[in-house]
Write a structure and sequence with these properties.
Elements (H helix, E strand, L loop, with lengths): L4 E3 L13 H10 L4 E4 L8 H11 L2 E12 L2 E8 L6 H27 L6 H8 L6 H10 L6 H9 L12 E2 H10 L3 E4 L2 H4 L5 H6 L4 E6 L4 H14 L2 E5 L17 E2 L1 H9 L2 H7 L1
Parallel strand pairs: 1-2, 2-3, 3-5, 6-7, 7-8
Antiparallel strand pairs: 1-9, 3-4, 4-6
Helix pairs in contact: 1-2, 4-5, 5-6
The protein binds zinc ion (2 copies).
The site of one zinc ion (ZN) has 4 residues, from loops.
Length: 281
Amino acid sequence: MAKPYIDLHLHTLFSDGVSTPEQVAEEAQKMGLAAIALTDHDTIEGCPRLAKACAERGIEFVPGTELSTDIEGHEMHLLGYFLDTMNEELIRETTRYQQNRTNRVHDLIRQLNSIGVALRADQVFSLAKCRAPGRPHVARALVRHGFCGTMDEAFARYLRKGTPGWTPKVNVPFEEGIRLIHQAEGLAVMAHPGLNKIDHLIPDMVRAGLDGIECWHSRHPKSTAKRYREMAARLGLLSTGGSDCHGPGRGQPIIGTVCVPYDILDEMKRRLPRSTVSVQV
Ligand SMILES: [Zn+2]
Ligand SMILES: [Zn+2]
C-alpha cells in the first residue's frame, strides 16, 4: 500500500518538543508514514536537519512552522507549510518572535521570584537549549528543581492564565502572520480550531487569506474533525491534520496516530504557487 498516511504537525527540541529531528524521522518511519511536516513554534531552524533525515529514510518532508498570532485578543496558532526556509524576511521575523519568547521567559521568572519561587533563568535556558523557549520549558525546570511534582502541576499552580506566575505574551497580529507565510511562498492554516473556540472569527481569517483548517488533531474527537472538514469544504479551504506530537511522554500525542490520508498533501500542492510546487514534488 503506497503513500498511506501523513502527519503535518510535529515538534522537536528546536521548540518545546523533546526529540531531535533524527529521532522524529526514525519514529515516522516506524509508523510507516509517507510524509511529515515540522511545525516548531516560531522557528524553522529544525527543518534542514529533518529534511535530510527524512530523505535518508525515503519520507517526504514539508518545511513548516507554527506561529503564535493574535486575533482580536485571542491567541491563535497559525501553521505555515511549504515554506522557503531561506526566505530572508521569514528568518528575520521568526528571530524577532524568538526574542519575544526569551523576554517572556525572563518576565515569567521575575514574576515567580516575586511570589517566592526561587527559579533562576539559567535553570530554564540550560534545559531549553533552543531559541524558541516557552512555558513548557519553565514548567520542566520547575519540576527538575523540585518546585513542582509534575508539568501539569506547574501549569496549574504557576503558568496558566489567572495563576500568580502568569505573564502575558506578545503575539504578532494574525494578518501579519498570514502575510509572512505567504511572502515565503507557503500556505497558512489555522491550527487545532477545536481548542480555540473562535469559530466565529474564521470568516475574517478567510478574508485575510487563510488557506486551510487543521481538521484532524489529537485533541479533536472524530465528530470535531468531521465538522471542520465540512466547514473547510464550504469555505473553499484546505483540510489538513497532524498529531501535534512533542516526543515521547506520558499522555502525550503520538506521531502518526491521527490518520491523515496522503491525498491531503496533493490538494495542498495544487494550491501552491507553481514555482514552489516544482521544487517540492
Ligand atoms: Zn498549537
Ligand atoms: Zn503544535
